[in-house]
Each structure stands twice: as structure tokens, then as C-alpha cells.
Amino acid sequence: MPLTQTHEIVRRARAAGAGVGAFNVLQLEHAQAIVAGAERADRPVVLQISENTVRYHGALEPVALASLALARAAKTPVAVHLDHAENPDLVHEAVELGLGSVMFDAARLPYDENVAATREIAEHCHRHGVRVEAELGEIGGKGGAHDPGVRTDPEEARAFVAATGVDALAVAVGSVHQMVTRDAVLDLDLIARLRAAVDVPLVLHGSSGVPDALLTRAVAAGMTKVNVSTHLNKVFTRAVREHLTAHPAEVDPRRYLTPARTAVTEAVSHLLGLLDPR
After folding, report:
1. Buried (b) or exposed (e) across 134-162, using 16+ Cβ within 10 A?
2. What would the pLDDT profile of 25-46 be if each residue is shown by its tens digit?
């Protein structure tokens, strides 16, 4: 199957009132499991590579090329996206490698500086046919910034999208990055107001902390792209731990990574069905 771009998947979902799952790739097993989960659910999916993951691997190219290869071989539409990039050079490299979309994160900057930096990135990416997601409002959960009380203002969101030309907007509506419990409380009314205020798809970061039923309601309220990472890491790690507890003498990583990959496949399939029940 030809490589599908993130904006194509997201645009179709938004038009249908459905959600799209975007899952973070930490290593090859994650990417394989996410694609297998999408194929099992018969839903499109986005493979995301974060700047933190690039730092872990020491370079973007190996994990990006592996993810692109899996995406091209998949039986369902799979896109590859650079997530939470703060370094413009990394964005430029992602464009050169063939990723179809990037998330440029300048949310920690003052508003005017965020606008200027994001606009410059958007102009560069658009010249190469690459779409840009940005963030407005501190979602929290990175670097200890757990503050679910911060919210994105709809009028500021409208102005930000117009000023930067971004193609999707991550907003703060109550979720927090890196949550290990699923008890976040989303502001559904704010999601609806943001959906009415901007003409680009909304993105929910920190979705690992959101319970299943609330994810479905968030999509109904106006969210389109739903990012999940920590929840899958929990599933992966639990499966490894259970296998090694049952087989303490095991030394072959393939033995314990296989059940972990299977567990993530099942979790991805389940989540995709929630976001796009059809």
C-alpha cells in the first residue's frame, strides 16, 4: 500500500466525526504492534516518533526509516509523524526523510515567540508538502509540569491558527502527559467551543490518562487526533514483567518481547475501535 499521509487520515476522520489513534513508537516492536493492531481493527493509524525517542536511539533516521517501511507494507493506511519536536533542525531532517507531518512544540515560549517560531516552521514544511501540528496551552506532564487546570482559550486558538498557518492544533482541555492512571477529567464543553473556533483538526495529547468512555465522548465533542503513549508502555512493560516472573531463567529477549508486542497489538486494536466505532 502506498504511504498515507497524516493529514489525509485526519481529514477523512474529521469529516466523518470519527477519531484517529496516534501511537508513539519507542522501538521496532512498538511499531510492529501498532501496525498489527490497526490491521486487526481495520482502521488507519499514525506512528509517532518523538524527540525523546530520537534522543534514546541517538538519531532519527534508523527509527524513521523502519517506521516508514512498516507503514508502506501495511494492509491499512498508516502514516508516520514526528511528535513533540522542539528542535527546528530535527523538523528539517524529518522533512528530508519523507515523514508527512510534524508536531512542532513551542508551547513553552511566550505567545508571540510561539507564533513566530511556529509560523517559520510551517512555512518551511509547507514548501515541501509536509503538514504541521502545533500546541497552544500547557498540557503538562513533561518535566514535572502536572497542571491539568490550564486550558486553551478558543479565541486565542483562532488567532494562533490564523497567524501560524498550522494544519492541526493540540489543545489543553484537562489531560496531562505521562499519566499512569486513567482518571483525567476532560472539559467537553471547551472541546466543542474549540472545534467551533478553529477550522483545523484538534489533537488530544496526554490521552493515556483518559478513560475509554471519555475518549469516545471527546471525539464526539470535536477531537480528531488522539495521542497515546504511556498507556501502551504500561501494557508492554506489564507483559514483559509477567513473562519474566513466570520464566525467571529466560535470557532470550525475543521470548519476552513477543508477548509484549502482542499485548500492545490488542490494546491498539481496542483503542482504535473506541475512536472510530463505525
Report:
1. bbbbbbbbbeeeeebeeebbbeebbbbbe
2. 999 999 999 999 999 999 999 9
Choosing from 42, 83, 105, 112, which is the catalytic residue?
83
pTM for the complete prediction? Answer: 0.92
Rounded-to-integer distance, Cα 213 and Cα 200, Å? 24
Which cell goes with 278? 463505525
How far apart CA 264 and CA 183 sit, in angstroms, is 20
Annotation marks residue 183 as catalytic: no
Q: What pLDDT is attached to residue 108?
A: 83
Render 160-210 in DSSP notation, one character per residue: HHHHH--SEEEE-SS--TT-SSS-----HHHHHHHHHH-SS-EEE--GGGS
Which band of pLDDT confidence, cut at 50, 70 and 90, is reported for residue 209?
Answer: confident
